[in-house]
């Protein structure tokens, strides 16, 4: 590999591996402050998981598999505000689709929000409904927050693990209050709070 290719891959890993999960956690903190019932449901799920362990015991793989509701909430937050808006593909053969001709070699851009915010696929698309991810969840290729096919996100399971563990610890210790209600997010290039999402953390009284 050339030096440029190595540098390119390192930058991809830093960007793909850090910014994606950190913006998702930021969105989660905002969402939970705005949806106290969802926060309470998560707290209940995680109090139960923690109480089945020895005091101070680390989460193990079996515990992670029990975390269903929180992952549904994270998935729903990423459906409404996908951390990555889309990616490029190159047509390796001529493609004819829906009356459009895309010659071999053309660059194509697929967009996460086109399906995940389509009201025909997800009714009331901007409404937070974690139950959309229960059982089999959305139909294949309608929720492509992690992409799809052979080039889909390489770090999906790692991202799931780190976000679940981080929120398991945070939610059991604190509730968060937004210091700037309705703070605006812009894509830059990932969803970013304009004023840094200042919050006040209140420890639980137990
Ligand atoms: C919330 C977290 C994350 C989201 C939403 C996300 C999303 C995505 C998306 C949409 C793609 C493009 C997939 C495609 O073209 O079909 C991608 C690719 C990739 N992601 Fe992630 N990602 C996340 C976390 C991570 C983490 C933690 C890592 C590494 C530790 C990672 C590494 C990669 C790599 C290496 C690729 C390129 C895969 C390839 O081209 O073969 N991602 N990710």
UniProtKB/TrEMBL annotation:
PANTHER family: BETA-AMYRIN 28-OXIDASE-LIKE (PTHR24286:SF377), CYTOCHROME P450 26 (PTHR24286). It is a single-pass membrane protein. Residues 1-22 form the signal peptide. Gene3D superfamilies: Cytochrome P450. Keywords: Heme, Iron, Membrane, Metal-binding, Monooxygenase, Oxidoreductase, Signal, Transmembrane, Transmembrane helix. Heme binds at residue 153. It is found in: Membrane. One of its GO terms (biological process) is sterol metabolic process. Coiled coil: none annotated. This is Cytochrome P450. Its cofactor is heme. GO terms for cellular component: membrane. InterPro entries: Cyt_P450 (IPR001128), Cyt_P450_CS (IPR017972), Cyt_P450_E_grp-I (IPR002401), Cyt_P450_sf (IPR036396). One of its GO terms (molecular function) is heme binding. Belongs to the cytochrome P450 family.
């Amino acid at each position: 590999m050339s030096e440029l290719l190595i540098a390119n891959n390192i930058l991809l890993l830093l960007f793909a591996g850090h910014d994606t999960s950190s913006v998702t956690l930021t969105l989660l903190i905002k969402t939970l402050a705005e949806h106290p019932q969802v926060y309470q449901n998560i707290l209940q799920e995680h109090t139960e998981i923690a109480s089945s362990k020895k005091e101070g015991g680390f989460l193990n793989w079996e515990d992670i598999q029990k975390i269903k509701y929180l992952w549904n909430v994270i998935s729903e937050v990423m459906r409404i505000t996908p951390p990555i808006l889309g990616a490029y593909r190159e047509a390796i053969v001529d493609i004819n689709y829906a009356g459009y001709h895309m010659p071999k070699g053309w660059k194509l851009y697929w967009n996460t929000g086109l399906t995940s915010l389509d009201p025909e696929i997800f009714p009331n698309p901007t409404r937070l409904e974690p139950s959309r991810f229960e059982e089999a969840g959305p139909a294949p290729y309608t929720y492509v927050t992690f992409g799809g096919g052979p080039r889909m996100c390489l770090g999906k399971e790692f991202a799931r693990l780190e976000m679940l563990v981080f929120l398991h610890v945070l939610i059991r210790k604190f509730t968060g209050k937004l210091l700037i209600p309705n703070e605006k997010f812009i894509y830059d290039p990932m969803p970013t709070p304009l004023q840094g999402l200042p919050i006040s953390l209140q420890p639980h009284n137990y």
